[in-house]
Design brief:
alpha+beta, elongated, 7-stranded antiparallel beta sheet
């Protein structure tokens, strides 16, 4: 007895892909939502890590500008020569300053403060008081200072009056 098999179903014909205006609209809207979301996350992250403000009040800083110019002119007139350095000492670093006057004599009896400022965040800034270890030579140890770029700000006072200041960028190696 012959067996009749049912005929195979006719192949369904797929419609070719059509790009409709609605698909383009939703694609564009989705794209811009993703871009705006990523931009928002990046802005929040950037502002939290580095607010960009170097001073708290630009107005107050501008009011002290002429005084700063006069102080720097007085410092230049003194003609002091300064040599500062930061040297690695194990996990710590040693900040040192050598001050000499115009004649080459050591400048003694100053109260010297040093600040190591991190370029990206003020949370890693370090402040130390330098002590006079030899005539005109001031130094201090900064514990646990990591390698990288730093700004060294040195301020020396004599009888509570500013006598010398310097600001320099430096790279502390491992």
């Amino acid at each position: 007895m012959p067996i009749d098999f049912p005929a195979p179903p006719a192949p369904t014909r797929r419609r070719p892909f059509e790009l409709s205006g609605r698909a383009v609209l939703f694609g564009m809207i989705g794209f811009f939502i993703v871009v705006a979301g990523v931009n928002g996350v990046m802005m929040v992250s950037a502002i939290r890590t580095m607010p960009g403000a170097d001073v708290k009040s630009a107005y107050e800083t501008s009011q002290r500008f002429n005084g700063e110019i006069a102080r720097m002119q007085a410092q230049a007139a003194r003609g002091w020569l300064a040599q500062s350095e930061v040297v690695r000492a194990g996990a710590d670093a040693v900040v040192s300053l050598l001050l000499k006057d115009k004649a080459g004599a050591a400048v003694t009896g100053l109260a010297v403060e040093a600040k190591l400022q991190h370029p990206a965040t003020r949370q890693q800034d370090r402040e130390v008081t330098l002590t006079e270890t030899a005539p005109g030579h001031y130094s201090a140890t900064v514990p646990g200072l990591h390698a990288g770029a730093w700004t060294l700000v040195v301020e020396a006072k004599r009888d509570r009056d500013p006598a010398f200041s310097s600001r320099s960028r430096m790279m502390l190696k491992e």
